[in-house]
Amino acid sequence: MKQLMGVINLDHELDKLNELTYFRCGAAVPFASRYRLIDFVLSNMMRADLESVGLFVRRKYRSLMDHLGDGKSWDMNRKHGGLFILPPDWNDPTDTSQGDLQHYHNNLDFFKRASAKYIVFSGSQHVNTIDLQDLYRYHLEKGADVTLVYKKIEHLQPEHDLCRRIECDEDQQVTEIHHEKDHPNLYLDIFIMEKELFLEKVEYCIAHGESYFFRDVIQKQRHKLKIAAYEYHGYHAVINSLESYYKNSLELLRQDNYFSLFRENPVQTKIKYEAPTRYLESANVSNSLVANGCIIGGTVENSIIFRGVQVRKGARIINSVIMQKCVIEEDAVIENVIMDKDVHLSRERILVGDHKRPFVIAKSSKI
């Protein structure tokens, strides 16, 4: 869609997944047996056929850049447009910008060279399957300056506490933006606006010493803008804590959740050519999500197993998330555990966490 470009802003996303974000930013955290959180927002943008996508990162982005490469997996390795990974680069001694406005100010060429007229902004912590073309059409129909995306949550969870809420009138015009924890309209960190208006507001904010675009423009200046609200109805999960990561991972073992996320909206990820998973005669696998390249000789129950994992004979994995290339030796027992990639667990070891607070093993550990 030549009229629309994308921005994925990771600057405001705090790395609160403890051991899982020691060596990577939150967007690079593995999810759902073969993906990373960044894959879901990139796939949404790929389906909308955006002209170009700019990814703004500040810290711990080596793993993310390795995963994304040139963007080929998302059809974004193009001669014109495509995926632009834009790490911080503050070489201008006269630059007075702060916060995420630094990203925008120091990459003005990215916006000005694009032919797109509108920009859709997104983070990576809200996993969803939004139709960005439908959002674009809705924004035009409303004649709004900005359109925010929200989802009405019937049963609020602890991970929703940090999320912004929006209130809107009968005409779906935003009247309030706040952090009241008991309000059901959850803002999904997605909005769309015209590029020229965006650039105008960036210059204004920098001149007035502001730091963050959403807070200082959309939230503080909401009475000066016509802000519409777009209600999203599809799959949604917030991954902003270790507990929310564990809970939402295991909830994908419910078929309705899994199909809601994947059936109608294919999600692209980095291509790896591996053999299918091999199940030995001693294997016993039930209600689990197992990626390719694994060798399973033990018992796996209610768990998510990533690529290349080896589960030796007699080992038991229950209610756990085991990431890439882990090795679980004979007769080891794992229950309520998140195991980061490249962990080697010796035989007959027993690791048991709580179902609400899982035991976490950091990347490349040997136990």
TrEMBL record:
Residue ranges constituting the Glucose-1-phosphate adenylyltransferase/Bifunctional protein GlmU-like C-terminal hexapeptide domain according to the UniProt record: 282-349
EC number of this enzyme: 2.7.7.27
Top EC category: transferase
One Gene Ontology term from the biological process aspect of the record: glycogen biosynthetic process
InterPro entries: ADP-Glc_PPase, GlgDAde_trans, GlmU/GlgC-like_hexapep, NTP_transferase_dom, Nucleotide-diphossugar_trans, Trimer_LpxA-like_sf
UniProt keywords, alphabetically: Glycogen biosynthesis, Nucleotidyltransferase, Transferase
Protein name stated in the entry: Glucose-1-phosphate adenylyltransferase subunit GlgD
